[in-house]
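I am going through a labmate's work and have reached the protein record below. What it holds is a sequence and that sequence's fold in token form. Please read both lines and tell me whether the tokens look consistent with the sequence. Do not assume that whoever made the record got everything right. Thanks in advance; the entry in question is below.
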Amino acid sequence: MLSWPEQVVRVQSLSESGIRTIPNQYIKPLTERSVFKPGSQVHQHADIPVIDLHNLFHKDPALHLDTLSRISAACRDWGFFQAVNHGVSHELMGRACQVWRDFFNLPLEMRQEYANTPATYEGYGSRLGVEKGAILDWSDYFFLHYLPVSLRNQNKWPEQPSSCREVVAEYGGEVVKLCRMLLRAMSTDLGLEEKHIENAFGGDNMGACLRVNMYPKCPQPELTLGLSSHSDPGGITILLPDRGLARLQVLKDGDWITVNPVPDSLIVIVGDQIQVLSNAIYKSVEHRVMVSSAKDGVSLAMFFNPKSDLVIEPAKEVVSEERPPLYEAMTFDRYRLHMRMKGPCGKARLESLKFNTP
């Protein structure tokens, strides 16, 4: 059975110990830090797409098509967008964030009951990847399976706080509805049958996982990251961002852009499997997370992925002589193994799938 290569240290415990300098294993190379990257700049404000999804449900075809075109442009040009009027209860979003804050505020020994291993990553963790001596991210997390139902094991979900399991189930149900709606909109825009992407991912057996990120306060935030640069290996991610603090950065045309969350928004992130299936018409976005010396943060990322044993490849409808398939076919289980073994590393895994073209 896979195990962690070194003793796991909880970043929250480090933060709460009052240290003034961070341990060497968290110090990123100069070129990876959030404020220093030769040849690139960090922008605080840009024309980041914000899409009102209300009209996606609208019977008026003109309003529906306008929303679809906005989603299309965001997925092609940015690889993500902020969604408002998305149908997920704002009150439920607040409860979901709070219940996980309460979990991370439990005594360490209670959290440790859910300590995870790299075999499945389910439970309470503090690192991605199993390489000994790797440079680590300044974050802890809790990872759990939501779909398919056959993989859902609520005994592995926190028993405390007492409302946690109920809130996770309710929040997950609403976000799944939103995900299916978005996948159908993407299929339609790509000229595919409405449920094409959904079915390619397994239909009712599509995977959904929740990763709750805890970013503790950091005494030297300029030296590290909460989550290193990566693209999400799955289909799409629906992120409930930390309220009141801009932590997420996306890479656009060589520059890192800080995303200031719109109140009550959810952030929709295109993953690598959508880039493959669309034959790079849609782009997955490389992103990372900064940390703060002033405030900790909690965010909820719901990942929607193909069923692990399904082969994903460019859809035949988006392939032609002029646009041949760019990527080799691969099961999602094999694809995501790279992230689980090596941790986040930009878009290197996706690039490795490309066919060699003359």
Q: What stands out?
A: DSSP finds nine helices and 15 strands in the chain. The mean pLDDT is 92. Residues 164-189 form the longest helix (26 residues). The CA atoms of residues 239 and 301 lie 4 Å apart.
